[in-house]
Amino acid sequence: QPLTESEASWANQALELSRGQAAAIGPQPLYVLFTTFVFWLVRADETWARLLPALCGSLLIILPILFRRWVGKSSWARTASIILAFALALDPALVALSRQAGGSMPAMALLWLTLGLAVNRQWRLAGITGGLALLTGPDILQGVVGLLLCWGGTSLLGRYLRQGSEPGDTEQEEGDLWREGLRPMLLYAAVTLVIAGTFFLSFPK
Questions:
Q1: What is the rounded distance in angstroms from the CA atom of residue 199 to the CA atom of residue 117?
Q2: What is the spatial distance between Cα 182 and Cα 180, in angstroms, rounded to a whole number?
Q3: Quick one: which of 2, 62, 94, 116 is 20 to 30 A from 108 by CA?
């Protein structure tokens, strides 16, 4: 289908860059730079302009696999995961986002992918996907705010439940989490922001 006005504004930026023109990159650099490469490699049309959202929408369907540690190993949990995967595949709003050129679907998929990798302690991969998620633009802020609120609530609940534990144990766990997890994750996210956000320094601005 033809691009809508909002979709065309992002696709036109990629089209100008693919032709070597000096275009101003908007606040969704991941979509613009990825689509620029696709336009340069294949051709510029409506189908290829929607490639990144379609790929991320397909990725969203298999993300429940990363949360098996939270879901559990019972037959009921596996059934619930399968039902969730089908629901993600058939949800009309998610299907529409997967067909819309822009950064909304990449923001959602990459944010949940980052969370899933962090749950499985794949910190470096989580940093890379987190950096890519930040490059999707303002849509990522809604998801980040929601996750921070959930994290704050569960942290307070966890502290309440751990009132009988030794304080030193909790401090040791937090120190290990920062040293072995969050610090390398932030480092890889920063490197990804520089490399992917400039497309290997091709667009340093």
A1: 24
A2: 7
A3: 2
- CA distances for 23 relative to 3, 15, 29, 177, angstroms: 19, 9, 12, 42
Residue 112 and residue 65 in contact, taking contact as beta carbons nearer than 8 Å: no
Give CA–CA dist 63/94, Å, rounded.
14
Q: Which of 110, 104, 99, 114 is nearest to 50 (CA)?
A: 99
Helices (H) and strands (E) in the chain, counts: 12, 0
User: Which amino acid does the sequence have at 98?
Assistant: S
DSSP structure class, residue 104: H
The two tokens of residue 58 are 């397909």
* CA–CA–CA angle 36, 40, 45 (5° rounding): 75
Phi, psi (deg, nearest 5) at residue 122: -95, 75
Asked if 57 contacts 48 with a C-beta cutoff of 8 angstroms, the reply is: no
Amino acid symbol at 162: R
- Token digits of residue 149: 């609120």
**pTM more than 0.90:** no
Tens of pLDDT, residues 115-131: 999 888 899 999 999 99
